[in-house]
Design goal:
Radius of gyration: 24 Å
Number of helices: 11
Number of domains: 2
Strand content: 5-15%
Low-confidence stretches: 1-5
Largest sheet: 4 strands, antiparallel
Strand order of the largest sheet: 2-3-1-4
Helix content: 55-70%
Distance between the termini: 24 Å
Number of strands: 4
Order of helices and strands: HHHHHHHHHEHEEHE
Mean pLDDT: 82
Amino acid sequence: MSGLLQRYSYTVWWNILLITLGSIIFSLALKGIVVHHQFIPGGVFGIGLLIYYVTPVLSAGIWFFLLNIPLFVLGWLYVSRRFFGYSLDAMVITTLAYELIQIDLGIQDQFYAAIAAGAIGGLGCGIVLRSLGSNGGLDVVAVILNQKYNLGIGKFYFVFNSLLFSFGLFIIKIDLIIASLILVFIMSYLIEYTLSIFNNRKLVLIISNQHEDIAHDLMYRLKVGVTFLQGKGAYTGKDKNIIMTITNNIMLKQLEQAVFSVDQSAIFIVENTFSVLGTSFTQRKIY
């Protein structure tokens, strides 16, 4: 089943579906909440909105499209043609959705509006980033810098948005800047949560004198891969095998029951881990 899902994640139709759905959700947050409160959502769209607030000759969606053109040239030259194609698709859909959607979600309170916009926008961006493309705009530059110079994407966003909000102080009120910071913080959290929700794994270490029986039960009854790590008791000085396995939240309780049904005195250690790459887990994303 996991192998089938991995193959789907690299198909064109699946990536187009993620990009389309995520871009529409992101545009809904922008057109339904952000514009009505004059927030700045950060990134290239934030620049487009700042320009729109000052000179509303062109809409923020058109500015977003125009500002993306030089960035996409960089994506074509320095990342890959596939990444360029998927990111271009996201940019076009976001622009069209923003221009076509005419809606006001009716949230009057500024604080509530910032929370709602961050949550909806973060969900949309996170869905797009689950694909082999990006949301366009700043994502293109962030991926290039990350691949070329190993500069963290989050650090780049922080520096860019800090400069953007500092400049925004000369254009909009401080209250709106603070609300926009809340929006961006919540959006960043939702993006990370959306990216991790299907990738979260549990690293389990099991210390037991009955390691052979436990390993056999895990492998042949629960169909879980098992690795023995060589350990030594600090007090006894005796060598022992420590069982290491990787599972998810759904299987964790079954794993626990299987271990303690064999050995009530076993030590069961669980650690959260985000990225596990391998044939039976998540494939390495190649742009």
